[in-house]
Design a protein that fits this description.
Blueprint lengths: L1 H17 L1 E7 L6 H11 L4 E7 L1 H9 L6 E3 L4 H8 L8 E6 L1 E4 L21 E4 L5 H12 L3 H4 L3 E4 L2 H10 L3 E5 L17 E3 L8 E7 L7 H9 L3 H9 L6
Parallel strand pairs: 1-2, 1-3, 6-7, 6-8
Antiparallel strand pairs: 3-10, 4-10, 5-8, 5-9
Helix pairs in contact: 2-9
């Protein structure tokens, strides 16, 4: 009898584990991920999703070192492509959303100057994501170089290791920041007004921010991981991405 109870307990624990998935999510998606989880739960109420947030570069390093993630939502295609090339991913990278870059300031600014506003002598600190770890940092650097102002203002930079840390610096320590547009759609950021506190950086200055999705090796026998992967490509997920300022095709 005790053996039967023990076996039933083990089976129960295995069932619980099978219904739990760990996913690696780029920091810019942190604002949308809870809505995505809630929508997914409607059709998969028994699946628990553990979200690990971070810069795409650091998450990639963790994955390469054996972190037990089943799915990766990156802020670019470069990192997923590298993981696929190394056979750590079991699906070819696809674009799940396209991000946009904005300038944000807690103070009212004259955005009629466009990106050249960053040259203003009253702007002494600029929050920027670290291009070594965060794709939005790479894009920010590209935009500033395209606008031919990078070398003039680089001494003003305050680096965040991820886009969410860059948003925090923008809100607390910097005069202005270059952040992901998706951050503006969180409830805490609703007070900021377009044309007063923020504006989009002209997309002509940077390469489109194609954000990549892959299933990882640990998802091989996980129907839950595959279900969430499919969900992220569904019309209901696309609507949520659009609601958070992403471009979805």
């Amino acid at each position: 009898m005790n053996k039967i109870i023990l076996l039933l307990s083990i089976c129960f624990l295995l069932t619980l584990n099978a219904a739990t998935i760990n996913i690696a999510v780029a920091a810019n998606v942190s604002y949308a991920i809870e809505d995505l989880k809630k929508e997914f739960k409607k059709s998969h109420p028994n699946t628990k999703i553990n979200v690990i947030l971070g810069s795409s570069g650091k998450l990639t390093a963790q994955i390469k070192n054996g972190a037990p993630y089943v799915l990766f939502m990156s802020a670019n295609m470069k990192y997923p492509q590298a993981l696929y090339k190394d056979k750590i991913a079991i699906t070819k990278p696809i674009v799940y959303a396209e991000g946009s870059l904005v300038m944000l300031s807690v103070k009212k600014q004259d955005f009629s100057q466009g990106i050249k506003l960053l040259l203003d002598k009253n702007i002494k600190t600029i929050a920027v994501a670290n291009p070594k770890t965060a794709p939005y940092g790479i894009v920010s650097r590209e935009a500033l170089k395209s606008a031919k102002i990078y070398d003039i203002i680089k001494s003003k930079f305050v680096y965040g290791e991820s886009i969410s840390q860059t948003v925090a610096y923008t809100n607390t320590a910097a005069d202005i920041g270059l952040i992901a547009k998706s951050a503006l759609y969180s409830s805490k950021m609703a007070r900021y007004k377009k044309g007063v506190n923020w504006m989009e950086v002209n997309s002509k200055y940077y390469t489109p921010i194609e954000q990549g999705l892959i299933l990882l090796k640990d998802a091989k026998d996980s129907s839950e991981a595959k279900a969430f992967y499919d969900f992220l490509q569904s019309d209901s997920a696309k609507k949520i991405f659009k609601d958070f300022g992403y471009i979805v095709k």
